[in-house]
Amino acid sequence: MNSDIIENYKNKKGVIFMETIPVFRPLITEDEILACKKVLDIGWLGMGKNVGAFEDDLRNFVRCHDRYVVVVSTGHAALHLGLLLAGVGPGDEVITPSFNNIADFQAILATGASIVFCDIDDKSLCVDLDKAESLINNKTKAMIVMDYDCILCDHDRINQLAQKYGIRIIHDAAHSFGSKYKGKMIGSFSDLCMFSFDPVKTITCIDGGALIVRSKKEVDLLHEMRLVGMGQPATVMYQNQRAWTYDVNHLGFRYHMANLHAAIGSSQLSKIQMISESRRKVCQIYNEQFTSISEIRTPLTDFRDITPFLYYIRVPENKRDALRKHMLEHGVDTGIHWQPGHWFTLFKDCKKGNLTVTDKVGKEILSLPLHSNMSDENIQQVVACVKSFRWRS
Ligand SMILES: Cc1ncc(COP(=O)(O)O)c(C=O)c1O
Q1: Does the predicted TM-score (pTM) go above 0.90?
Q2: Of 3.40.50.2300, 3.40.50.970, 3.90.1150.10, 3.40.47.10, which CATH number belongs to 3-23+272-387?
Q3: Across 165-220, where does the E strand assignment appear?
Q4: 236 Cα: distance to centroid of ligand 1 (angstroms)
Q5: Residue 337 CA to ligand 1 centre (angstroms)
Q6: CB distance 204 to ligand 1 below 6 Å
Q7: Pick from 61, 97, 363, 381: CA 20 to 30 A from residue 39's CA?
Q8: CATH class in words for 30-269
Q9: What is the pLDDT of residues 295-350, one digit of tens each?
């Protein structure tokens, strides 16, 4: 590590005192604390005014005025409801990249449908659409496509496949919130699009999720399904009121978002430009700094139009553990996003195609710290740490 960095970590007695740089660090400021205080002072803690306001804020930000935004308790809830809206149920198959979040796999199982694991493309790390097409059959009801980190899927081709085979698309945009695809905001063009606002996401509600849908019919259904099936009009609830009599017509879950979480979300969203620019800058520095290390593969993008959620590198599989140990010893934590789905006990017998790329990437992938407003000192420490690893030994 650079000597000036070491100096920064010495306490008054000259003993090195080092806080590990975490992979994620949410940007929580006075704004969020004030927003929470306001909600707590009003005392309507459950679903209400702030939830409606957060949905409006998201709709304006995503520029999806021909669509509807419904916020829910988590990204997982959004995926589950999205699949149900798509009509997925027992006997159906849903294709998903195996290189995806567990929430996606569990959401498929929760509908009673079967998972079909597909491979990813070696360059984008998003679903391999040729391989996906070969897995489509008359049981295929839907496909989950996920923008992995800072590279977006080929959404035009996905749309063509959906039309050709009559399948629904659930676009998992948990990583691509705030990015643009061919000039269009992510969330503004997909069949069904979901976001996650969990504790480590680009913007957080502590926990939260959203679904963007195209019809009023879908919205009405979602409003009931997220509220254990209660036919409470959102227009009433968004005035911090509730109806005491209502009907129950649909299967439902306790998946709604509370005012406190929505208030944090709106506060975070008001800072999205700074969040986006600061994260992009870190990724650009990392990419530039690591090009000289031939053992590292960096994301193949210049990050233009991208709001990065995480930053990954690919390293030779026989070096990954040693690099992680080296980094931790020098005060830098690293992460693994992800272990592929078909490696887990619960999913090991699921139907799958050829997963050669996934198996390779699962052993090479490594996430480095990326924070909004990350300090120059932290960025330098991460870079120095990667560079000081004995790559050739
Ligand atoms: C790609 C992806 N999809 C879905 C989820 C699930 O979202 P949540 O944690 O809000 O349930 C995550 C969470 O990390 C994710 O990264």
Answers
A1: yes
A2: 3.90.1150.10
A3: 168-172, 180-181, 184-185, 192-196, 209-213
A4: 30
A5: 11
A6: no
A7: 61
A8: alpha beta
A9: 999 999 999 999 999 999 999 999 999 999 999 999 999 999 999 999 999 999 99
